Amino acid sequence: MGVGGYGPVLSQLVYTSSLGVMYVLIKAAFEHGMNHYVFVTYRQASATLAIAPIAFFFDRITLEQVLYFWGFDNTTSTYAATISNLIPAIAFVMACVLRLENMNIKSPRGQVKVIGTILCVGGAMIMTVVKGPTFEFLHHLRTSKSLSDILGAKSLVVTSGNLILGLILLIISDIAYSAWISYQAWVFKNYPAQLLLTALMLLMATVQCGVVAVCFERSTTAWRLAWNYRLLTYIYSGVFCSAIGFFIQSWCINKRGPIFAAAFYPLSSVITAILEPIFLHVDLHVGSAVGMIVIIVGLYVVLWGKAKDLKGNTNLLPTQMGDGVERQEQAVEMPKVKNQNEELNC
Q: Which residues contact 195 (CB under 8 A, 6 or more apart)?
């Protein structure tokens, strides 16, 4: 496998790492008083400004975003990253029902992908539910002050009522995002210009989020921009996690399918769980570490199954993703034609 074959994997690692950093930055900004409606609008705007020029020269999601960061504001960064790990399971079901993935549950490759997805989701749930003792050695890695203390933010502790509301909103957001992933697989059949498509989506999301934000937040103070931590959060999340991140997701969906793109989301939980004790002074428990290991194993299993798919369909590495059933039929028929020609030559 050449560099091009590793491209989707490396790009997904970059994307999930960016998400892990974003979760920590955003939680501290929310505790400092940043409004989640205003944040979503400025994030989409900065993402649009970042990718639009690139799309113009090279190529000539509103519900999910609003619900997600509304839920984020009522939970913690670890909860937000962990609940996002439902995306592989939801996207897996959608892809199978809509026949966007060539899934034969009776074949070893199909069973491996199912097991890997279950392990990813199960590891995420372990990180959330199982606690146990804390890792004391991580206290030596902590910064002298947490981001919340530096910003003079309020406590990271949330009430049970807000936590329940936040979890419900996050789950609904995951369903919406999984639907977006599945929709991308359809779109790229007839619209291969990924940069332009991403720019158009972000532009529309900016307009839609702006309308929603104005309806709920009309204070000029919340909208005022200044050279501060909030502006850093807007730009970082918009450029790296929306503009670059959505393009990476679209490109990987086009190359490897929706299940491959969704399978990497659990890594953001691992990165967040590592960064939180250092920068937010949140304890890392043994249960979280066990969950991390399960997630990594599950991700490896999914990637192994996808690699077997690609190895079994050597003629199916092109740029445009078609229907999984049609692709399999083409891969089976082509050798038959070759064999017939050899018989005629003999």
A: 51, 54, 55, 58, 59, 247
Evaluate if residue 336 carries a pLDDT over 60: no
Tokens of 114: 């199912």
Distance CA(142)–CA(276), nearest Å, equals 9
* Coil vs helix vs strand at 245: helix
pLDDT band at 106 (very low <50, low <70, confident <90, very high): confident
Nearest CA among 13, 67, 269, 15 for reference residue 175? 67
Mean pLDDT of the chain: 75
Q: Which two tokens stand for residue 184?
A: 């991308």
Name the one residue in this structure whose structure tokens are 């505790």: 31
CA 151 to chain centre: 28
Query: How many C-alpha atoms does 300 have within 13 Å on its Cβ side?
Result: 6
Structure tokens belonging to residue 242? 């929306």
C-alpha 198/C-alpha 187 separation (Å) is 11
- Residue 16, class by beta-carbon neighbours within 10 Å (0-12 exposed, 13-18 middle, 19+ buried)? buried
